[in-house]
Amino acid sequence: LASIGLAWKLGAQGVEFDVQRSRDGELFLLHDGTLRRTAGRRCPEALLSTGMSQEEYSKLLDVDVSELSYRDFIRHVDVGAWKDEAFAGQRPCLLAEAMAQVLSGRFALCEVKSGDAAAAQELAAAVAAWGWSGDRLALIGFDLEVMAELKKQLVARSRVDVPVISLKEALTEEAARQHVSVAKRAGLDGVDYEANAAVVTREVLAAAKSQGLYIGVWVDQDNLPDGGDTAQNLSAFDERGLTFFTSDLPAEVCGW
Description:
Helices cover 34% and strands 16% of the residues. By secondary structure, it is α/β, with parallel strands linked by helices. The chain has an eight-stranded mixed sheet. α5 runs parallel beside α6 and α7 (173-185) packs parallel to α8 (202-210). The longest helix is centred in the middle third of the chain and has 14 residues, at 117-130. The chain is globular and about 60 Å long.
């Protein structure tokens, strides 16, 4: 939750986060498939008091979060201290808690990590139950089948306004252009690629717009020069009429 509040302070128009589904059916925020990388190494007092040992705690950090209970384990784990002591005590929050922090006039890109039909159904049900609108929430994901099922479930619940967007690691302009057609045939609302201006060209953007699709890009520190998070890159995409640019440097982007 702290990162969402920080994004607004830095001037971002939106936030991007990842949602997982726990064994007990809770939708919560976490990027990785396990807690190992971000969890505090010491077993929390709340878990020690239940009789859990340090050894048991450590082993659970390597278990896929879809096999762990949110209520009994995940919600107690500190996932903030690894980043900075200022974030110590931050726990994986529920999706509903995160959406409550999305201010009026701002929006969230929610990446669906749990790749199955059950997760799609529960996420669509949550969108309908909480009344999250398409101007506050867009759902993104790499698994085309899951995203198509998610859109189907949203339509069935009369929530066609919530965009469902396909993430794709396209290595060439042709691959990006072809995926526009793939996403359209799957009934989705948009495409989202790495912020490589040589791949996501004017022609690719024109193809997406001709199909009535949103088109966005995300930065990638591992695969792009400077991660793609540069004024030059942003300017190139802005001139092409991009729908959204997902950055790790919101304050700098707003200044650019």
